[in-house]
Amino acid sequence: MLFDGWRPILRTLLVGVLSYSALVAMLRMTGKRTLSKLNAFDLVVTVALGSTMATVLTSRDVALAQGIVAFAVLIGLQYAITWTSVRSRRVRTLVKSEPRMLARRGEMLPDAMRRERVTEDELRAAMREAGMDDLARVEVVVLETDGSLSVVERDVGPRAVSS
Fold first, then answer.
1. Average confidence score pLDDT of the chain
2. Is the CA virtual torsion 145, 24, 68, 60 positive or negative?
3. How many CA atoms, within 13 angstroms, populate the side-chain half-sphere of residue 52?
4. Which of 49, 132, 139, 153 could pair with 127 in a Cys bridge, judged by C-beta atoms 3.0 to 4.6 Å apart?
């Protein structure tokens, strides 16, 4: 069916604007951490929020108030877990992965790369992004908890200055 009348469209428009406004307000109240680069835990919350919003927008069986409560539950849990993880090493290790070194002092660490499923091409792309084209210039490459690759240049000592 292509068109069911204006009532469902107006409902989607009204509920969309209100639920979006509520979600943005809740995310702003919980601070920047909720909107930071995603680790696995943050990704799950983000996907769940998106799924909840889609359900609220498209299902007549879910009231706007119910959707807003669902947003509050998800954001509240995410806030509680991140608050607790800052204060508890045990919770932190459950929620977040540890950074892993993938290259050190100009040499790739193949076992670490294999465990983290990072290819040589991906590592070299991160190096180029950091302005380095030679592995010998790299002190370390680290796979961060959010999935990004950090590249630290080697300190090669004083550089000769040509006149």
1. 86
2. negative
3. 23
4. 132
How many angstroms separate the CA atoms of 18 and 132, rounded? 48
Distances (CA, A) of 65 to 18, 35, 59, 120: 10, 23, 13, 49
**Which two structure tokens, joined as six digits, stand for 120?**
């040589």
Task: Provide the pLDDT confidence category of residue 127 given band limits of 50, 70 and 90.
Answer: very high
Q: Outline where the chain has alpha helix (H).
A: 6-30, 40-58, 64-87, 89-95, 110-116, 120-129
pLDDT, tens digit, 9 for 90 and up, residues 27-72: 777 766 555 566 677 778 888 999 999 999 889 898 999 999 999 9
Whether 57 contacts 15, CB under 8 Å = yes
In sequence order, the β-bridge partners of residue 138 are 153
Tallying the residues shown for the chain, one arrives at 163
